[in-house]
Design the sequence.
């Protein structure tokens, strides 16, 4: 209790400190409507240690003009939004004060009503709160058609009020010396129920409490309203009413046989050692509800009896008649309800629907609904579970609701449901989570480092030999924030060549990754089927990755085994392409019309045009860096060139050359028509112009025909 008082005091101090920001920044606050003006000086009141400005309202959606008088000039002044009101007009700076208009929403239901402002002054930003206290005058009265009541008979009257919504209804019976009463509400109407207990003129004073208060004559907050007062003429019933000490009894096989001891109000007409019949109707031939056997009179003006119930009855269904044979002698009332039994248990997991199930998961908070009979009499307890039912428990004879939390470190697999201290025979089954987690715990490694597959957005171009391709699994990532449990994975592999020809296809199933020991549930998972180590692709394919040719494709599809997750799961595709920057080929081409220039030959002018020549060149081709398996249009190489290779009369001139060529990059064509540029040296000279060895260096330029092997 001391700790609770300290905590409450600290909360009040903190709220009071926040409330002081009103006096820090504002000199006065005014609320103005068509009939009244309220301000923070004249209409100031302290509620639970907080200074509030009170105002009266007559409508749930009252509209006010608000005027804020600042103590200093604000660099920034903004009202924060709230569900309690709607800002109709924006804030206007009128130099002396700020003005805006608000329309409140549902003032009776609002709690801790306030305006919150975002203020910047002297380059310092702060939140200033102005607390409000809505007040309203509430009246209530009844208009009975007559003033007659009968002993033991319940009478109901509708309560009239100028603000029914502001009446605080508890549904509990209030006991007085002459008349018992209670208030109930139904369909936005309030009713007064009364049961008279004494004969003659009996005054009724029924007290009511308001949800929103008013001010007393001393200027203090008061929640009580003027009581409902009326004087009734109470008459004796035609049959004497005998009250019981119990308002509810249980019907079961045991109570049928053994009966239930009760204390019945004594009467001179009630005979001892006699069995009376209890029926629900005054006329003869009614259905037997119970039997009452009178045993002895007690000193408290009660008679000890044994009641044996045979059928159900509810006191709201009418009175019970105590009969001597078929002759009614007395009336009474009691509820005879079935014993508590559970017919169905339903669970609502977060984000799901109600499901008839007893399966729960570690660490979760779930809603529980129990269906059955006589549940309003039960007091259920749940082994090792935390009852976090924050709101008023919904409880009726047929169903009851709870909100429960499963401890994260729970070790038991079966939890018993108790009614009081007795097991009900029903259990909760604690099951580990088995939910698909996003594949951010899977890494692919094809070189010196691994990449998280969830971060791969496009095909991977890799320009080195892949010695092996491995998948690694960060098991500590699986249960890092929420629990997901074991991950059941499938890997589909497809390897194709540079021309998209299929090399190999493989599907690897039943890869089970269990969360690591760092998981809060790490010690509770079964690790019999856990996949340990890394997933090496070369263990599953016939042609290892290090033997794949250039521009081969390795396509991996990593996905959850959806049969383990009710059809749900994630899937990620990763494609790795063996990129190369260049290639080496032997090309045979037939240049024609080459312009050959010998720098030291002064007799030929600009040079001579050759006929059809033949070139065999060892050349390098270069791939486009941003395209897959696509050449750049230029090549460079070195080899042999036979000038005028088909000149049978004179013979051909054989030379060594360095050639560069520019040609189309069509992949499918074996023939192309390049443009050549290069230089060379004649090894043999059979043409008309005879050159000494020192002058045989030349340049060449021209078109040709290339045959590609």
Sequence:
């Amino acid at each position: 209790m001391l700790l609770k008082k300290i905590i409450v005091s600290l909360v009040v101090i903190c709220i009071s400190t926040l409330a002081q920001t009103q006096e820090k920044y504002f000199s006065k606050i005014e609320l103005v409507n068509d009939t009244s003006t309220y301000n923070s000086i004249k209409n100031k009141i302290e509620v639970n240690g907080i200074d509030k400005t009170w105002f009266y309202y007559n409508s749930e959606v009252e509209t006010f003009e608000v005027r804020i008088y600042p103590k200093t000039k604000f660099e920034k002044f903004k009202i924060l939004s709230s569900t309690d009101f709607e800002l109709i007009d924006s804030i206007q700076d009128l130099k002396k004060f700020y003005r805006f208009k608000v329309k409140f929403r549902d003032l009776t239901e609002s709690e801790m009503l306030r305006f919150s402002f975002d203020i910047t002054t002297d380059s310092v930003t702060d939140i200033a709160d102005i607390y409000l206290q809505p007040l309203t005058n509430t009246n209530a009265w009844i208009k009975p058609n007559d003033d007659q009541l009968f002993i033991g008979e319940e009478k109901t009257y509708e309560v009239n009020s100028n603000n029914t919504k502001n009446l605080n209804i508890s549904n509990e019976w209030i006991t007085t010396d002459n008349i018992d009463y209670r208030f109930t509400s139904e369909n936005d109407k309030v009713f007064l129920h009364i049961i008279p207990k004494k004969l003659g003129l009996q005054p009724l004073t029924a007290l009511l409490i308001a949800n929103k208060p008013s001010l007393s004559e001393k200027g203090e907050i008061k929640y009580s309203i003027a009581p409902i007062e009326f004087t009734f003429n109470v008459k004796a019933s035609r049959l004497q009413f005998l009250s019981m000490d119990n308002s509810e009894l249980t019907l079961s096989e045991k109570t049928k046989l053994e009966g239930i001891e009760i204390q019945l109000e004594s009467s001179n007409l009630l005979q001892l050692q006699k069995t009376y019949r209890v029926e629900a109707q005054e006329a003869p031939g009614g259905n037997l509800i119970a039997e009452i056997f009178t045993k002895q009179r007690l000193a408290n003006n009660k008679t000890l009896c044994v009641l044996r119930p045979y059928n159900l009855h509810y006191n709201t269904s009418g009175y019970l008649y105590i009969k001597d044979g078929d002759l009614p002698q007395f009336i009474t009332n009691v509820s005879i309800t079935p014993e508590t039994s559970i017919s169905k248990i339903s669970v609502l997991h977060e984000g799901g629907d109600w499901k008839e199930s007893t399966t729960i998961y570690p660490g979760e908070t779930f809603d529980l609904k129990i269906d059955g009979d006589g549940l309003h009499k039960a007091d259920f307890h749940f082994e090792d579970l935390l009852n976090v039912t924050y709101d008023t428990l919904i409880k009726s004879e047929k169903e009851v609701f709870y909100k429960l939390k499963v401890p994260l470190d729970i070790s038991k697999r079966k939890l018993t449901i108790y009614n009081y201290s007795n097991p009900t025979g029903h259990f909760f089954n604690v099951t580990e989570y088995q939910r698909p987690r996003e594949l951010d715990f899977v890494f692919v490694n094809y070189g010196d480092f691994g990449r998280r597959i969830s971060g791969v957005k496009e095909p991977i171009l890799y320009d080195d030999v892949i010695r092996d391709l491995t998948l690694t699994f960060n098991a500590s990532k699986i249960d890092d924030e929420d629990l997901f449990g074991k991950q059941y994975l499938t890997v589909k592999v497809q390897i194709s060549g540079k021309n998209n020809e299929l090399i190999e296809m493989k599907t690897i199933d039943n890869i089970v990754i269990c969360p690591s020991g760092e998981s809060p549930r790490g010690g509770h998972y079964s690790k019999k089927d856990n996949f340990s180590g890394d997933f090496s692709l070369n263990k599953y394919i016939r042609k290892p990755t290090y033997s794949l040719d250039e521009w081969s494709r390795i396509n991996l599809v990593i996905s959850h085994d959806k049969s383990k997750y009710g059809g749900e799961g994630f899937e990620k595709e990763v494609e790795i392409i063996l990129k190369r920057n260049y290639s080496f080929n032997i090309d045979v081409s037939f240049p024609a019309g080459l312009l050959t220039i010998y720098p030291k030959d002064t007799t030929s002018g600009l040079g001579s045009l050759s006929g059809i020549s033949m070139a065999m060149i060892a050349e390098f081709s270069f791939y486009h860096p941003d395209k897959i398996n696509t050449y750049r249009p230029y090549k460079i190489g070195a080899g042999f060139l036979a000038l005028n290779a088909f000149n049978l009369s004179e013979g051909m001139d054989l030379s060594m050359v360095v050639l560069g060529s520019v040609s189309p990059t069509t992949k499918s064509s074996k023939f192309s028509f390049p443009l050549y540029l290069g230089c060379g040296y004649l090894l043999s000279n059979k043409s008309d112009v005879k050159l000494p060895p020192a002058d045989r260096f030349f340049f060449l330029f021209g078109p040709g025909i290339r045959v590609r092997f």
The domain at 582-708 is CATH 2.40.160 (Porin). Residues 1-19 have pLDDT under 50 and may be disordered. Helices lie at 2-19, 21-25, 253-258. The chain has six domains: 2-135, 140-235, 240-338, 345-424, 442-578, 582-708.
